[in-house]
Design goal:
It is built from 1 helix and 8 strands, in the order αββββββββ. It is mainly β.
Length: 147
């Protein structure tokens, strides 16, 4: 590898940890009753639930969330389901957009990745990324907010 590439790679490695983040967090969700519509092949769903978010500084926030989801056609999909969710707490509010796949032999478990869009409070004007895995709206995830 040339010295130019080595120096460039080192510069990137040194710069990435210094990027400002609005917050890194883990969260645990508890889903309420799910309302589904449609057929076994084409489904839509609506669900409300709660979350406990734990930020990297140890602070915790209790949230309420609402999600709607739709299954994707079996012949034209990257994800099995897409979800749009809103979450709110005393800390502020934000939206999440997820793509989720059913985990084979996972007893209904799904694995999801998505984006975050802050609306109010500590999240206002911020975006980020999120992951989640669980069953029936109950599970665990991660958030990474960027400035």
């Amino acid at each position: 590898m040339s010295n130019f590439l080595r120096i460039g790679a080192l510069a990137i490695c040194l710069a990435v940890p210094g990027i400002a983040h609005a917050g890194t967090a883990t969260y645990t969700t508890t889903g309420g009753p799910e309302k589904t519509v449609g057929t076994a092949e084409y489904q839509g769903s609506y669900q409300e639930g709660t979350s406990v978010v734990t930020y990297s500084d140890g602070s915790k926030v209790n949230e309420k969330w609402t999600c709607i989801g739709v299954s994707q056609p079996p012949n034209a999909k990257l994800f099995d389901f897409h979800f749009a969710c809103d979450a709110s707490s005393d800390a502020g509010s934000y939206s999440m957009i997820f793509g989720c796949n059913n985990i084979p032999d996972g007893n209904g478990m799904q694995g999801c990745v998505g984006g975050l869009n802050g609306k109010t409070g500590r999240y206002a004007g911020k975006n980020g990324a999120t992951t989640w895995s669980g069953t029936g709206g109950s599970g665990t995830g991660t958030m990474q907010w960027s400035d």
